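Meet today's protein:

…
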Amino acid sequence: MTDKNRDIRDDEFRVIGRSPQHETSTEDVRRRNTGVSIISAIIVLAIGILAIVMWPKDAPEDPNDGVFENAPEVVTPGAIVRLGVETDASFTEKLDTVINDVHLSLYIPHNAKPELTLGVPDRNDKNIILAAQAADIRRDNQKILGAFVLKGEPLAWGLSKKGFCAIIEDKVTVGVSENSPLFEEATEKGGYFFRQYPLVDNGVLVENEQKNKTMRKALCSRAGQIFVAVSETDESMHDFAQALVDLGVENAIYLVGSHSSFGWYIDSAGEKTLFAPDVHRGTYRNENYIVWR
């Protein structure tokens, strides 16, 4: 008599203590293990995908967003406020500042009318609160370098320098243009016009060829104000113009600079201070100035 409990084929195994219906073939075990492996792989893959989706993504790289070298704060037009004091008196206010290691003195004329003069202004004229040399003159024939209009009369024509200043009906306009209609308007309305090197054009630095360093002067327009900026140290045109840009100057042109550039200002106490020693004045007939009186 055959014992069913002992009659086991070579391809079967029996779990002791369990009923015959729980007997499992080798093929069933393999399939079960395979199913478990597939399920485990799916779970691992799902976790990986979830981690990728949930991982914080980097924003587009900003070259100025460094920890140690942050970009300088940009002054927006809405944040620019007028310089100096509000006053009814007529004088020139002097402000000192340092921009990018460039020491600047700002001369802001209050309650005075601008004009151009040909020849050296009278130093004894108490009505002149600010005077600075304007256009340069040619080395070969001592004529005015660039277009020039004096009280509506054109005295020179030329476009060697693209910066310009127009004074029409007591309003000063500083800008950069090859062919400004303000030249004709100044002629028609008895105004003034001269050209110089451009330094700042609508808030953007204008490069110039001059690479030497010396005292620099500029006629600036900022937040509706017109003033003269002077470097107290010898600077290149580039560094000087960059300092003006960082000051928030919108437009600026060069004025005759160097340590011998003559001029003066009258402060609130009525004291006169010269920009440079009064030497060799009157040597050149076409020497010209922008003055406020």
